[in-house]
Amino acid sequence: MANENPDILGFIEAHANIIAAAIILITFVMGLCLFNMRVDEGGDDSTYITRAMDLVANGTYPTYQGPLYPMFLALFISLFGAKVWVLKLTSLALIVLSQWTFFRMLRGQINIRITFAVMFLMGINSWYLFFGSMTYSEAFYIVIQYIFLGLLLRFENRSYQSTLQGILHSLPSAALVIALYLIRTVGFGFGIIGVVYLCLRKQFVKAALFTGSMLLVFFAWMTVRTAVWGDIKSDTRQIESLMQVHPYQVEDGQETISGYCGRVIDNSNLYVSKHLMRILGLRKAEDRNTNPLVTLLVYALFIFGTVKAWERNRGVLLMALTSIVMLGITFVVLQALWDQVRLIIPYVPIALVVIFYGLYHFFKIFAGKKAHLISMVVVILCSLLTISQSFGKMNADVLKHNLSGDMLYGYTPDWYNYLSVCSVVYDQIPDTSNVACRKPNMARIYSGGHKFFGIYNFNTEDPDELIDSLRDKSVTHMIVASLRRDPLIPGGEVINTIHRYMHFIVKKYPEAFHLCGSCGSENNEPTYLFEVNYNYVDAMRAKLSQSAEEGKANE
């Protein structure tokens, strides 16, 4: 590609820093226009915040999800307090930084036009910029992964005169693998990428040094963690749920080999033919259909780009290997029901490098020197469709209300009613109360830091076991919300975990729960607050026990 259109390419190369700065500025401006002040309904972003709060307040080690991102947030909470808008601004800063690291990583590795095409598409993309105002770990993860890939390429090129020097050269990239693993468990895949890439490049000694450095950094981290927090029991709930057929239904059993293969097929269709096409603006945001033919065509183009990269471009080859390993792990491990764009968003820019590279070489077969013009038309089309989607998602009215202090403005009625109850519940009940709900971390943030008890699932229908479990956890109140199972369908099916939990209890103890308050009309996705009446339950148990004894005596 470098030999074609030398004037245009020379101009771009000569002004690369200015063009990159312009794209980064566009990213920042678009990020501000799409900025979302509210906590996301997904729940994980509020979970990261509450774990960071616990770390600052009590020194509690962040478990379950990767600990490094809550530690990152804890730095800002310790300086500014648990101000959600401050934490969200760190995400925007990270997204802007990711553009710069992407540019620096690929500078001189692939054609500069592909780099700028991908940067620009991401810089105007609402799906990507969404993570610039959310306290999900994606923005942090993206920056670290780009730095790792750049350092890996640098390590491959470096020469060293001793084994010790080789280890020292490999330590930065090895440390970043451990960091990626501590942000998202799937980050261990970058260790595989590093070893495989170096072996493909016939750098076997460097691959061994890199492996040794990763082990060294990992054991150093474990030593520090043990010294600071003691022996921490690993939380295996997440891994165990991923090995099940259904993450929340233990009774469905463990996944089989054929089931894992089915996951790859289902996830490929979901994330390639649906989510990737949405990101590129080639499908409407509300379009939920999948198309196996589109999936196959994208895969064919990706494979073609990988083959061409194998022949002539180590930078694109590394991008291809990264996409294969990370998306491969994601598609195998995760059940298709998750269906969340955030699971692939860190790897989309990397995969697009390979796809655009393959697209250019495909057009080159038929159009020769005009291939770059045809490729440019495709990128411009995607850019127009993408920015049209982004403009459609801007909502100045919502942002204005949120900035003025109305933090619930912009939520759908189901969430508005739920969070309204959560925000005032501790103004109406004693501070010693313990309130159970489905989304405890969001409730905590909107209630000013009060802790809630989360009920996500249960494995019995026995009313006595269920009520005793509440008593054991000192639960005094229950919040029952009408949170939509499908966010786009108002009044449809709701997340009914709490409803079912209470239903089984009420069948035996009809007055076990006393209605204390509500928000929202019956036809407007209401939320209810109930108090648990343990005295009634105990009285009913005594009465039932007495009746049983009398029955035995009569026999």
Question: Briefly, what is this?
Answer:
The chain is mostly helical.
Structural notes for this entry:
By secondary structure, the chain is mainly α. It has 23 helices and 5 strands. It has helices at 6-14, 16-33, 44-58, 68-80, 84-106, 112-123, 126-129, 138-157, 163-183, 189-200, 204-229, 237-242, 257-279, 292-312, 314-333, 348-367, 371-393, 396-403, 413-428, 440-446, 463-472, 497-508, 534-554, and strands spanning 435-437, 453-454, 477-480, 513-519, 527-532. The protein has a 5-stranded mixed sheet with strand order 2-1-3-5-4, sandwiched between helices. A hairpin with a 7-residue loop joins β4 (513-519) and β5 (527-532). The protein is globular.
Ordered list of secondary-structure elements with their pairings:
Layout: H1 6-14, H2 16-33, H3 44-58, H4 68-80, H5 84-106, H6 112-123, H7 126-129, H8 138-157, H9 163-183, H10 189-200, H11 204-229, H12 237-242, H13 257-279, H14 292-312, H15 314-333, H16 348-367, H17 371-393, H18 396-403, H19 413-428, E1 435-437, H20 440-446, E2 453-454, H21 463-472, E3 477-480, H22 497-508, E4 513-519, E5 527-532, H23 534-554
Parallel strand pairs: 1-2, 1-3
Antiparallel strand pairs: 3-5, 4-5
Helix pairs in contact: 2-5, 2-6, 3-4, 3-20, 5-6, 5-8, 6-16, 8-9, 9-11, 10-11, 10-15, 13-14, 13-15, 14-15, 14-16, 15-16, 16-17, 19-20, 21-22
* Residues in β-strands, percent: under 5%
Rounded to the nearest angstrom, the distance between the terminal CA atoms is 95 Å
Instruction: Give the beta-strand count.
Output: 5
Helix fraction, binned, reads 55-70%
Give the helix tally: 23
Structural class: mainly alpha
